[in-house]
Write a structure and sequence with these properties.
Number of domains: 3
Largest sheet: 5 strands, antiparallel
Order of helices and strands: HEEEEEEEEEEEEEEEEEEEE
Strand content: over 45%
Structural class: mainly beta
Shape: globular
Radius of gyration: 20 Å
Number of strands: 20
Number of helices: 1
CATH architecture of the largest domain: Sandwich
């Protein structure tokens, strides 16, 4: 049951023909006998941002191999690992990333990808472009595990900062997306409505917007939040993104929309640019929203494009439908 849940959770595809091969081991700070899972994926900025590969890893050796004809020399790859203590992974379960991320294969192979795992980690970085009062800054860490089963990330921890350079220790291990905001009214919460929004920005990196807290986490979590503190009104950040899970899918897809409050429209198109479905149209208050879509019965298997359009910006995500 645990095996099935994790495989369904990560929704990764496997292929039976061996080609590109990645070898490695897991390394723990404390003994464990639970089954682990290693995930190898492309740089999220590439066209292959949904090309994920995984394998189970067993005690006591915790050695692992991933082989797939789609793992090739020409791309950057990242390796992460988790060892769930129960049916579903939770924050604080052993997790980590390969310290040498990103890496590339040579001649179709790479070995010695040792991934250190830990139950805690440190989040550190700098808020750049900010010229207001440092003690007005708040950092929010959003738990990314719910996204793996089609739900929006949820706010797990908030930290009031006293400087634009920060270091937060003993953060439970796991995947997070991170937002910084200016707490103008001092209530410690991020306030957003159609009429009022506190200045904010998200951390972004080569893995999209995800940070992996735990073993091997050495990259700074820098956030660019330009604000002078002169007034209490601020132009909304120019950010709009859409993610899809699972991808590929065969019954229902969940689209995660991240953006600021505005009027938006969303639709699905085929590769020829023909609209096949409307998702929504109207006011959107901002933040993170999940939309579920089930294709019509007569829709053929294939590659489609979900497009979200707002004022002066749009976001797209390629999806694959398999009947």
């Amino acid at each position: 049951m645990k095996k099935f849940a994790i495989v369904a959770l990560i929704m990764l595809s496997a292929c039976g023909v061996f080609a590109g091969t990645v070898f490695g081991t897991l390394e723990f700070t404390a003994p464990t006998t639970d089954t682990g899972f290693v995930i190898v994926f492309h740089d999220f900025s590439s066209l292959y941002d949904t090309m994920l590969f995984f394998t189970e890893v067993y005690p006591p050796s915790y050695e692992w191999v991933i082989s797939d004809p789609l793992i090739i020399d020409d791309f950057d790859y990242y390796a992460l690992a988790i060892v769930p203590s129960g049916l579903m992974p939770i924050l604080g379960d052993p997790a980590g990333q390969y310290p040498g991320n990103p890496f590339r294969l040579s001649g179709g192979n790479i070995a010695d990808i040792t991934i250190p795992l830990d139950t805690i980690g440190t989040v550190f970085g700098t808020i750049t472009g900010y010229d207001g009062q440092p003690d007005s800054l708040v950092l929010g860490l959003y738990n990314y595990y719910p996204f793996l089963i089609g739900l929006p990330p949820t706010l797990a921890f908030t930290y009031r900062l006293d400087d634009t350079v920060f270091s937060i220790e003993n953060v439970p291990a796991g995947p997070f997306t991170v937002r910084a905001w200016v707490d103008l009214n001092g209530n410690g919460h991020f306030d957003s409505s159609a009429a009022y929004i506190e200045p904010f920005a998200w951390h972004e990196n080569d893995m999209g917007d995800i940070i992996a807290v735990g073993g091997g986490s050495f990259e700074p979590t820098d956030i660019h939040l330009p604000w002078t503190g002169v007034s209490e009104t601020q132009p909304l950040p120019e950010r709009l993104a859409v993610h899809s899970f699972p991808n590929p899918f065969n019954s229902t897809a969940t689209f995660i929309v991240v953006g600021e409050g505005a009027n938006y429209s969303g639709a699905v198109y085929d590769i020829a640019g023909r609209k096949v479905a409307d998702l929504f149209e109207g006011a959107y208050l901002g933040g993170i929203t999940a939309l579920m879509w089930s294709p019509p019965e007569d829709l053929e298997s294939g590659t489609y494009l979900v497009r979200i359009v707002g004022p002066n910006k749009s976001a797209e995500r390629q999806i694959t439908y398999i009947k």
